[in-house]
Design a protein that fits this description.
Number of helices: 28
Distance between the termini: 77 Å
Number of strands: 32
Strand order of the largest sheet: 5-4-1-6-8-7-9
Helix content: 25-40%
Radius of gyration: 34 Å
Shape: flat
């Protein structure tokens, strides 16, 4: 006889009574039982303890399972009693805190078990919480007799595992389609439970029936949740700001199973009704609504607040990275990323991205342009705080169609689900500036906007909408306007906005969810400051701030992946940028290296005894050595070179072709004593490497430890005060690569290097480009180049420092 046994008890140290927690529309344990019902067995048993039996037996009976009560802590004995009671030959063991067990894998396990001729079988490589174990019951009973170890008794398998010479144990790698060992579905903590609820929301959505999920459904959902991490959506629920923000956030929450922040002091009258409707349709689950910021960890917060006051903005910023949508305030220093979806007038703030492509436009559209207006819909939002709806209704009742007939008027006073797809039924949509206006234009309806301020007039004019101020809302005005439906269309700017390729807001938000906030690479790499640093630039790819402590410019939020410095970079990508591969450019780069090592050599020997030149050659470590042109230059000048680089291909080339010692290493995780047999060097160099480190504090501290007293530290980097940054700052920041986390300015170098025990000896300005000056002409080139050199406007610079000796240094 084959029995399938799920072990479960209600007492749990980390998550008490988790088996009874609601998951979708049933208890957590019910999910495990339903999944295991898909596995063939002669008997299905829920094995628990006497304290848990009264409650769990009710669920077991409802599911058609037997329920057995045995010892609470001696789980091994509990299983032995079940085996003896049913005289079983084979046992399939599962645990009750695994609601998403792969029943296909469990079926395979029981199918292959006889052919393995073993006492224990399981598949390895599965997500944690998705597998089962199969036992030869005779072996398990025998092993149980041999152990009194509390650990063995509290579990089941270890009793067999400790006797590999007596029992045949087979742990077989699972098939590739199920091999995801880094994923986890077991429920052991509150965080696990929240993940499970989100997984059910992603898979089941609004479906009434919640059958056991296939392994592919579970894996697909887990991979989605790896993208749609814990997100807190914060819509505006203030009186006077409309319902659009809340409705947009409900829609996002439905798609990505995120949390919705609804504070207790809600001013929006329609808030409760909209939430109840969303819960009724299954778009939103009760657990998704949170009423206070608590200890839950969020990947980031999305603010759709209309306008966020400084106090709230500060609270949100301290809690998690913040993405603001259509933000109307100027408190933007607290926002890591700003996205404008509905085109707005120019506020005195910068956005990262302004793109109406994220507006979900209706699929149903009029096939022909409106020639005569008969059917009118008046929809001024779910709130309409100043009573425009009634005013507009009364005015339009007095208006007649061009043919003299009475207008067919629909007035929206309560939110209509999926209104956008119903707009095409109407000839004219009367609304205010917002999503509905764009949706109506996309549906090829005539549109009239009602404006209550000069801002609405400005926006309407910008996008070609016909707009009427409240003071001018009269029947005569409207009668004249509807005579010419062709004038109630949209302008060139709006047509551009409507015709761009549509983009998914959810997918874009998910892409940002995999990013993270950074602090100053020197002062605060983990961004633990009480207040954010000043924002100096934003674009689609990044946000750049200036540290209030050390003055360093740095990328605080990065929306694009960094460059991967593999072999492909040094060949294809390098060639695309410079016209030749890195190795083809080797001799030129070495020429630059010779100039640099000569300067290092000069500074070094100024601090050391001249006779030492004839006794021992100095040693230099080049961090980010690439294919070794600087190492070759250093060797030619009498230095002993060592190198490190993250590229394996580059390090192999240095070792095998050039013959210099180099190691693949992610600096500063590097032990020179282990790799090279020496712990310190006479000089350390980094050529266009230093800007790539996210945590410069650790890097520079490590460099200081590696260099002997009076040794040299030399590096080069792009300049934040060169010609490009001086005359075209926006373009300079925009072109700054996503993996250049720090932007150095020469005037800040001395104070920064002093922190790490270095004194700057020389700054050499390089990368002079006459053509980048605003007044450049060919005949002025020499004069401009002279100006660039005299004013230190090179787009790159080199720094040469000496390590200041301390008392006790050797």
């Amino acid at each position: 006889m084959t029995i399938l046994v799920i072990q479960c008890r209600l007492e749990s140290k980390r998550l008490s009574r988790k088996a009874l927690l609601p998951l979708g529309r049933k208890e957590l344990i019910a999910w495990t039982m339903d999944a295991m019902r898909c596995v063939p067995a002669d008997k299905y048993i829920l094995a628990t303890d006497e304290d848990s039996f009264p409650e769990l037996s009710i669920i077991a009976k409802k599911k058609g399972w037997d329920c057995f009560a045995g010892p609470k802590n001696d789980v091994l004995e509990r299983f032995c009693q079940v085996i003896k009671k049913h005289k079983a030959d084979t046992l399939i063991r599962a645990t009750g805190d695994n609601p998403f067990l792969f029943y296909e894998v469990a079926r395979s396990s029981i199918e292959v078990f006889p052919s393995k001729k073993c006492d224990y079988f399981t598949y390895t490589g599965l997500p944690h919480g998705c597998g089962v174990e199969v036992f030869n019951t005779k072996a398990l009973l025998d092993a149980a007799e041999k152990t009194d170890n509390p650990f063995d008794r509290e579990h089941v398998g270890p009793a067999v595992f400790q006797y590999p010479e007596e029992y045949v144990i087979v742990k077989e790698p699972v098939a590739a389609e199920w091999n995801y060992p880094d994923l986890r579905t077991t429920i052991d903590t509150v965080e696990d439970y929240e993940f499970a609820r989100r997984l059910v929301h992603i898979v089941s959505g609004t479906k009434k029936v919640q059958r056991p999920y296939t392994s592919s459904e579970t894996l697909h959902a887990m991979q989605n949740l790896a993208v749609y991490k814990n997100i807190l959506l914060c819509p505006s629920v203030k009186k006077g700001c409309g319902t659009g923000h809340l409705r947009r956030c409900i829609k996002m929450a439905a798609k990505n199973a995120s949390f919705l922040y609804i504070p207790n002091n809600v001013g929006l009258t329609q808030c409760e009704a909209l939430l109840e409707e969303a819960k009724k349709t299954g778009e939103l689950a009760e657990w998704q609504i949170v009423h206070a910021l608590n200890d839950r960890k969020y990947a980031f917060i999305v603010l759709d607040m209309f306008s966020t006051d400084k106090q709230k903005a500060s609270v949100f910023w301290k809690f998690a990275p913040v993405i603001a949508i259509d933000e109307g305030s100027l408190n933007t220093m607290y926002f890591d990323y700003i996205l404008d979806i509905i085109p707005s007038s120019s506020l005195e703030r910068n956005t990262n991205l302004s793109n109406p492509a994220f507006i979900d436009l209706p699929l149903k559209r009029k096939k022909k342009a409106v020639k005569v207006i008969h059917k009118v819909i008046i929809t001024l939002g779910g709130e309409d705080p100043i009573g425009l709806t009634s005013l507009a209704e009364n005015v339009f009742k007095e208006v007649r169609a061009v043919d003299g007939s009475q207008l067919d008027i629909t007035v929206v006073r309560k939110p209509i689900p999926n209104l956008a797809e119903k707009l095409a039924k109407y000839d004219l949509v009367v609304t205010h500036y917002g999503l509905t206006a764009f949706e109506a234009a996309a549906a090829n309806c005539a549109v009239i906007l009602l404006g209550t301020s000069s801002l609405h007039i400005q926006l309407a004019k910008k996008f070609g909408f016909a707009c009427v101020m409240t003071s001018a809302l009269h029947s005569s005005t409207i009668s004249e306007m509807i005579k010419h439906p062709n004038r109630l269309g949209c302008g060139v700017e709006l047509k551009k906005a409507l015709n761009v390729e549509r983009m998914s807001l959810n997918d874009f938000i998910a892409s940002l969810a995999n990013c993270r906030r950074r602090g100053c690479p020197i002062c605060d790499p983990r961004s633990n400051k009480p207040e954010p640093d000043m924002v100096v630039f934003r674009d689609e790819a990044k946000t750049i701030r200036r540290c209030g402590s050390c003055g360093l410019l740095y990328i605080s939020f990065n929306a694009k992946a960094a460059v991967n410095y593999t072999e492909n970079y040094f060949f294809e990508e390098y060639k695309n940028q410079y016209g030749k591969t890195y190795l083809e450019d080797f001799n030129y780069i070495k020429t630059l290296g010779i100039r640099r090592i000569v300067l290092i050599d000069s500074l070094y020997w100024k601090k050391h005894k001249r006779h030492a030149r004839h006794s021992e050659s100095p040693v230099i470590l080049d961090i980010g050595c690439a294919y070794g042109p600087f190492l070759s230059a250093a060797a030619d000048t009498g230095w002993i070179p060592y190198g490190t680089d993250i590229s394996k291909d580059a390090v192999d080339y240095v070792n095998n072709e050039l013959g210099y010692p180099a190691v693949q290493s992610f600096f500063p995780v590097f032990n020179p004593a282990e790799k090279f047999g020496r712990s310190r060097f006479d000089a350390v160099s980094m050529w266009y490497v230093i800007e790539h480190f996210e945590n410069l504090d650790t890097v520079l501290s490590k460099v200081a430890c590696l260099i002997k007293p009076n040794g040299v530290f030399a590096f080069s980097t792009p300049s934040g005060s060169g010609v490009s940054a001086t005359y075209n700052r926006e373009e300079f920041f925009s072109n700054n690569p996503s993996d250049h986390y720090s932007i150095f300015e020469p005037k800040k170098i001395q104070s920064i290097m002093k922190r790490y025990g270095f004194k700057v000896q020389k700054i050499l300005y390089t990368g002079h480009h006459a053509e980048r000056f605003p007044n450049y002409t060919k005949d002025k080139e020499k004069k401009i180049m002279l100006k660039s050199k005299m004013m230190n406007l090179g787009d790159t610079f080199e720094v040469y420092c000496i390590k200041i000796p301390k008392s006790g240094d050797v």
